[in-house]
Amino acid sequence: MTNSKQQPQQSKKQDYQVYTVEVCPACNFKSKRPFEIGDFVFKTNGECSHCKNAKTKIEMIYAESTKQQS
Ligand SMILES: [Zn+2]
């Protein structure tokens, strides 16, 4: 039996939160908010809350650990 390189690290708890980062092409203002269903990269969102001159685009979506670090 050679099961050498397997590391069963699947835990059933989800200790992370997914965030969506939006960026405004006009003023480069970035904002981060919790991911919502339907978000995807390069999706156009609402009016920029900073300059109100352009619509923000989703720049990236990422997960961040919510585990508390001591
Ligand atoms: Zn803007």
Element order: H for helix, E for strand? EEEE
Q: What's the gyration radius in Å?
A: 18 Å
Instruction: Give the total of beta strands.
Output: 4
Hetero compounds? zinc ion
The N- and C-terminal alpha carbons lie at a distance of 40 Å
Into which percent range does the helicity of residues fall? under 10%
Structural class: mainly beta
Low-confidence stretches: none
Number of helices: 0
Task: Give the overall pLDDT as a whole number.
Answer: 88
Total separate domains: 1
Which strands sit side by side, in order, in the main sheet?
A: 2-1-4-3
Gross geometry: elongated
Summarize the structure in words:
The protein is mainly β and 70 residues long. The protein has one domain. It has strands at residues 16-23, 30-34, 44-47, 55-65. It has a four-stranded antiparallel beta sheet with strand order 2-1-4-3, with no helix packed on it. A hairpin with a 7-residue loop joins β3 and β4. The radius of gyration is 18 Å and the shape is elongated. The N and C termini lie far apart (40 Å). The model has no long low-confidence stretch (mean pLDDT 88). The chain binds zinc ion.
Summarize the structure.
With 70 residues, the chain is mainly β.
Output the keywords:
70 residues, mainly beta, four-stranded antiparallel β-sheet, 40% strand, elongated, binds zinc ion
